[in-house]
Structure formats: structure tokens, C-alpha cells
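A further point concerns the way the authors explain their paired sequence and structure data. Nothing conveys this as quickly as seeing an actual entry. An entry of this sort, consisting of the sequence and the corresponding C-alpha cells, reads as follows:
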Amino acid sequence: MNGHAIVVGGGIGGLAAALALRRIGWRATVLERAPAPGEIGAGMSQSPNAMRALDEFGVGEQARAKGAPSYSAGNLRLPDGRYLQRARRGDVTPLLAFHRADLHGLLLEAVPAGWVHPGTEVTGLRQDDRGVTVTWDGGEAGADLVIGADGIRSAVRRMVWPDASAPRFLGRTAWLGVADTSGWGASAEDVTTPPDGLSGSVTMGSGGYFLIHPISRGRTYWAFVTTADRPDLRYAREKAEVAGRLAAWHQPIPGLIAATPDEAVIHIDIRDLDPLPTYVRGRVALLGDAAHAMSPDRGQGAGQSIEDAVVLAAALHAEAGIDAALARYDTERRPRTQATARGARADGRRTTSAAAHRALAAMIRLMPAPVWRRGIAADGNATWRWRPPRLPEPTTHA
């Protein structure tokens, strides 16, 4: 079954959908409202499940060349620098860490020329027996299928799921940044790599945690996640605010913040979506954050959207009709993504709760290291264990 899909949203999930569709011989038109294709934000990591999905539509090796290994899941610390658990070479599966723009750029380059249309904000959508028509200021186009991959504030979701809840503030906020650490020295006070060479860490404090990922070209991504009484609380000097909160935490945390340009410190509030009863209505399917936006606490937001893309393409390839394929996609993706979102929400409560911090730190410290390492092996947990359906070999259709 071949066809044409309109993908609304040109972020990581939308581009992944276009690449997966191309793999099965479909055409895609990607409508992105931003005036130029790009990705906002700072850093991110992809775990083994997402990397397998990238392999399935042919960009896994290129992604590995762009990313950097991070052992943050194995190096857990306290604000005074003590380790609760420590990664040991050969025993811990690294994540692959990226600047968001690097992974987005890789996907964008792989999409056929002419498929992505920036500066196109969708204003309407209607369905009939022949397919779906999407309208925007100055134009319209029809397709067999529309994929809403336009993020947590999805216009497609608002149009087709008008009864869906708005994104929910989770009582937490985060500062993000990327520091140039290429010229840092080798003293124990200012490097991001512990003595055993396994870089990346998570420092767990009372009421917040600090994440460190090395990324390519001598840069280091960091994020501080903590509680907030209300959303949209901003500061005149965001870098000074986060630096003041973490001045007493171990190095390289203060050093990373200091090495980040003031204007490059990003402050966001953390929200997710209440579960939808379906990701499909008629010939419209939601994908990624538009369907199941989740907190970052399991590092699965972009990864789940990449999984969505592979599963949707596989269903379209395997089923005789689009309706059956979309039903299969919904049946396969909704339980997994909603369970992942619930788990991320629960993890966020535990890791930013001052009341729970002491008990959580004690539990991690007392856990035997082999047990901890088994849990963060490539197949050590249900999220990372997932394997994608197989897509056909690449076609020449573009």
C-alpha cells in the first residue's frame, strides 16, 4: 500500500515520520510553521530503544557519529560530590547524547528535497471519504493521511480532539544550557569526566537534580530540574538565578553554568498531557508530544516519537487499508507511551521531592552495584528492551 501523508510539524518526530514513510514507499509533505527548519532547546539523550528505531529507517550509524556516549544513568552523585552509584567500564550501557539541533539536522538532511515546507502554519483540517484536506494561509492540500507531530500544544490535536485537556503543569521547572568545555584542564575540580573515563552524571539534591551529558565537539549539556510554585515564573538574570541555587554543589556544576553564555541559558516549565482515549480519529493520527507529551525524567520524549514513526510506517506497510493500519498503530503505541509518561511523571515527583530525597538516596546507596547495573543494561528495563518492527529495505521512491 502506497500513499501520501501530510505531516504537520517538522521537529524530530515529524521528520522521523517522513523518513519512515519514505522507507515504505510513501510520499510525505511536512508542514512546519517556523520560518526556517530547526530545533530549539539544548541537549538530549537517546537510549537503546530509540537507537534501534533510528537504525530501522536507516540513520542509526549517522546518529552514532553525531552523538557522544554518556554514562549519566550509572554515575549518581550527591551535591557534596559523593557517589551513590558509579559506572564501571563494560558494565553500563551508555546513552547517546546530542545537541538537539545536531540530531534534528541529521534527520532533516535525510528527508528528500522538497518534502519540508517551512513557514506554513496549519489553520484548518477536514476529512471526507476520499481523505483529508489541510489548509493554511494561502493554500491547501489533500492527502490519504494526516500525521499531527506538532508538539505539546498541537494545533492538530486542538482541531480534531477539541475535548482533550490542555497541557498540565507538573509543579516543576528546569534550566538548560550547553557549555564549551573543549579547553578545560584535567584537574578534578573542573572536568566532566570522572577518573575512570566514563562521563555523564546525575546529581540528586533535596528538591532537584542536575544532569550532565557530554555532547559532540567539546561541548557539555546540563540541566537542573527543581520544583516551582507556579508556571511562567521568570527571572531578570536566569543564569545568575540557577548559579546562585547551585553555588555550593560539587564541581563541575558551578563551572558548567559559568561557562555557558548568559543568553544561552534556557528556562522552561515542565508539563505533560493527560492520556487520550485514542491517537487516531478518521484519517488523522497523532505522534510524539502531540499524542503523549511527557516529563523529561526518563529521557524518552523524543525517543518515543521516533518509535511512533517506525510503528506507524510498519502498520501502513503491513495492513491492507489505512483504517486498519491506524487502528493497529493506536493499539500498539498507546499503552506503551502512556505507561512511559506515567512512569516519567512518578519519577519526577520522587527525584524533586525534598521529603523523598533522603529515602531515595539511601535506597540507591544500599543497592548492590551489580543489581543497579543490570537495571541500566541495554535490555535491563522494559523501556530500553523494546525492539522496532522491521521496515522494508529502502526504496528509490522520493
